[in-house]
C-alpha cells in the first residue's frame, strides 16, 4: 500500500509539472503583453525598468527558471499584473475559502440527495418514485446552472423575499448559490447511483442476505450503498477541485467575491502571474484529489487489491 501511494504521488507531481509548464508556455506565446499595455504611455527608460522588474526582458527559458525559483525557493507566486500591489498567494488565501464554502455545501447537498434519490429510484424501479427521480435528473443535466440561479433568485429573493438576491455575508447568502451549484451534480449522482444500485441488487450476496433474514434497510445500508457508491467517489474527487474554477458563473450572478471570478478575469487580462498561481493551485487540488480517490477505493471496497504493478 505504501509503494502504491508513493507511485501515485510521484505521478501526480509529474503531471502537475507538465500542466504548469504547458500553461507557462501558452500564456506567453499568445499575442498581447499586459506589460506593454501598462507601460505604453511611459518613457522608454521607465518601460525598461518595469520589464526588468517583472523579468520580461529575459528569454522564456530564463523566465521559466526564475518562476520555479520563486515558487520552490522563495515560496512566492508573484504579484498580480492587473491588480498592482496584490500578491497572487494573498489573493488565493483571501478568496479561495469563499469558493470552497460554496462548493463544499453544494457537494454535500448533491452527494447526499443524489445517493438517497438514486437508491430510492433503484428499489422502486418502474414505479412513480423512479420516474420522479429520473425526471429530476433530466432537468438537472439539461438546465444550465445560470438558469437555475436566475429562477431561484426570482422566486426566493424577488417574489417571496425570503433570501437575499446577491452579496456575501452570513449563511443565508450561501443557500441559493449552493442549490444552483449542486443541481447538476445532484442529477449525475442520482443517475449513477440508480444504475449501480440496480446492478448490486441483482448480485448473489444480496440474495444470500435476504435468505438469512436481513431486513431491507440493513441490506440497503450495508450492501447496496457501500458497493454502489464507488462511481460516486470517482466523480467526487475532481468535483472538489473544480469548485474553485467552475463556479465563476454562479459567483458573478450572485456577486460573490470568490476565486472563480479572479481566474476568468486573469485569463482575459493576460495576468500571467495570476494565471500561473491559480493554475498551480487548482491543478494541484485536481490531481491530488485523484490520488485520494485511488486510496479511498481500497478503503471503501476491500475486494479491490493493490498490487505492486499498480
Automatic annotation (TrEMBL):
Subcellular location, principal: membrane
Membrane topology category: Multi-pass membrane protein
Any one Gene Ontology cellular component term annotated for this protein: plasma membrane
InterPro entries linked to this entry: BPD_transp_1_N (IPR045621), MetI-like (IPR000515), MetI-like_sf (IPR035906)
Pfam families from the UniProt entry: BPD_transp_1 (PF00528), BPD_transp_1_N (PF19300)
Compartments reported by the entry: Cell membrane
One GO process term, biological-process aspect: transmembrane transport
Segments traversing the membrane: 9-30, 102-124, 131-156, 168-187, 224-244, 280-300
ABC transmembrane type-1 domain location: 96-297
CDD domains attached to this UniProt entry: TM_PBP2 (cd06261)
PROSITE patterns found in the cross-reference section: ABC_TM1
Keywords (A to Z) from UniProt: Cell membrane, Membrane, Transmembrane, Transmembrane helix, Transport
Organism domain of life: Bacteria
Family affiliation: Belongs to the binding-protein-dependent transport system permease family.
PANTHER family: DIPEPTIDE TRANSPORT SYSTEM PERMEASE PROTEIN DPPB-RELATED (PTHR43163)
Protein name listed in UniProt: Peptide ABC transporter permease
Amino acid at each position: 500500500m505504501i509503494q502504491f501511494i508513493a507511485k501515485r504521488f510521484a505521478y501526480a507531481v509529474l503531471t502537475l509539472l507538465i500542466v504548469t509548464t504547458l500553461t507557462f508556455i501558452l500564456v506567453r506565446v499568445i499575442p498581447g503583453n499586459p506589460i506593454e499595455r501598462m507601460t505604453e504611455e511611459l518613457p522608454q527608460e521607465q518601460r525598461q525598468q518595469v520589464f526588468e522588474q517583472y523579468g520580461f526582458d529575459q528569454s522564456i527559458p530564463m523566465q521559466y527558471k526564475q518562476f520555479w525559483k520563486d515558487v520552490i525557493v522563495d515560496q512566492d507566486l508573484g504579484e498580480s499584473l492587473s491588480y498592482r500591489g496584490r500578491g497572487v498567494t494573498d489573493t488565493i488565501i483571501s478568496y479561495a475559502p469563499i469558493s470552497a464554502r460554496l462548493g463544499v455545501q453544494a457537494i454535500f447537498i448533491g452527494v447526499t440527495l443524489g445517493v438517497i434519490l438514486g437508491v430510492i429510484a433503484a428499489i422502486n424501479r418502474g414505479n412513480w418514485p423512479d420516474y420522479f427521480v429520473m425526471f429530476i435528473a433530466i432537468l438537472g443535466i439539461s438546465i444550465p446552472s445560470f438558469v437555475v440561479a436566475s429562477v431561484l433568485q426570482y422566486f426566493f429573493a424577488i417574489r417571496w423575499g425570503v433570501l437575499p438576491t446577491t452579496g456575501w455575508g452570513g449563511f443565508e447568502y450561501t443557500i441559493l448559490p449552493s442549490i444552483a451549484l449542486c443541481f447538476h451534480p445532484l442529477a449525475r449522482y442520482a443517475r449513477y447511483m440508480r444504475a449501480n444500485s440496480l446492478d448490486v441488487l441483482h448480485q448473489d450476496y444480496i440474495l444470500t442476505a435476504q435468505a438469512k433474514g436481513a431486513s431491507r434497510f440493513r441490506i440497503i445500508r450495508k450492501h447496496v450503498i457501500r458497493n454502489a457508491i464507488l462511481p460516486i467517489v470517482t466523480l467526487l474527487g475532481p468535483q472538489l477541485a473544480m469548485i474553485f474554477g467552475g463556479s465563476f458563473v454562479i459567483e458573478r450572478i450572485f456577486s460573490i467575491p470568490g476565486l472563480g471570478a479572479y481566474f476568468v478575469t486573469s485569463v482575459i487580462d493576460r495576468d500571467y502571474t495570476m494565471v500561473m498561481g491559480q493554475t498551480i493551485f487548482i491543478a494541484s487540488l485536481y490531481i491530488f484529489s485523484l490520488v485520494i480517490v485511488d486510496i479511498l477505493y481500497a478503503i471503501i471496497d476491500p475486494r479491490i487489491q493493490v498490487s505492486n504493478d499498480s
